[in-house]
Write a structure and sequence with these properties.
Keywords: 4Fe-4S, DNA damage, DNA repair, DNA-binding, Endonuclease, Glycosidase, Hydrolase, Iron, Iron-sulfur, Lyase, Metal-binding, Nuclease. Belongs to the Nth/MutY family. InterPro entries: DNA_glycosylase, Endonuclease3_FeS-loop_motif, Endouclease-III_FeS-bd_BS, HhH-GPD_domain, HhH_base_excis_C, Nth. It comes from Clostridium folliculivorans. This protein starts with a helix and ends with a helix. It is mainly alpha-helical and 211 residues long. 39% of the residues are buried. It is elongated. It has 12 helices and no strands.
């Protein structure tokens, strides 16, 4: 790991000592559902919806007892809810038929499920199974490109670049640190560069303040 990368990680650790997954879940299945729901939606909104949803339907078998229409009605506060409900119901059937109702603990297994791409798989692998992973969501993509940990307009390339740049044992924590920084400081519009703890090491900051 480059010295600059190590310093960036240490500064972000100091800034966000509580960095962790902000989706509420009790099991790998619940995290999988919550992560699918979280696409283009805030974790806060997802948690509001899943609080009652998981209380009433905590398991794969419980979900399989309800109709897609009922699920749509329960998650309709969330964007793209019809498509998400369709994918989740299909995913539940796939879990039952192909994995004995259990969420697989491999990238290949999770990405074979409806509605689950690499980002979703990495979130579940990291948080539910403790597998070192870097899920590249919109925040990780933006922040890592801005500060120079990655340089690509392709999400998968950014994931590979971060894996190469960061030690494997730091992947999961770095993912959370970059998300926290993206939500709280390095926002898409009007980033708070003046209070950023790593601005002196940031490629974006240097490019916007140079004369």
């Amino acid at each position: 790991m480059k010295k600059s990368t190590r310093i960036i990680l240490e500064l972000l650790k100091e800034q966000y000592p509580d960095a962790k997954c902000e989706l509420d879940y009790g099991t790998p299945f619940q995290l999988l559902v919550a992560t699918i729901l979280s696409a283009q939606t805030t974790d806060k909104k997802v948690n509001e919806v899943t609080k009652d949803l998981f209380e009433k339907y905590p398991t794969v078998d419980d979900f399989l007892l309800i109709s897609q229409e009922e699920l749509e009605d329960r998650i309709k506060q969330i964007g793209l809810y019809r498509n998400k409900a369709k994918n989740i119901m299909m995913m539940c059937r796939q879990l039952k038929e192909n994995f004995n109702g259990e969420v697989p603990d491999t990238m290949e297994g999770i990405t074979s499920l409806a509605g689950a791409g690499r980002k979703t798989a990495n979130v579940v692998l990291s948080n539910a199974f403790g597998v070192p992973s870097i899920a590249v969501d919109t925040h990780v993509f933006r922040v890592s490109n801005r500060i120079g940990l990655a340089n690509s307009d392709n999400v998968y390339d950014v994931e590979l670049q971060l894996q190469k740049e960061l030690p494997k044992k730091e992947w999961s924590l770095a993912h959370h640190l970059l998300i926290f920084h993206g939500r709280r400081c390095c926002t898409a519009r009007n980033p708070k560069c003046e209070v950023c703890p790593i601005k002196h090491m940031c490629k974006y900051y240097r490019s916007t303040t140079s004369i």
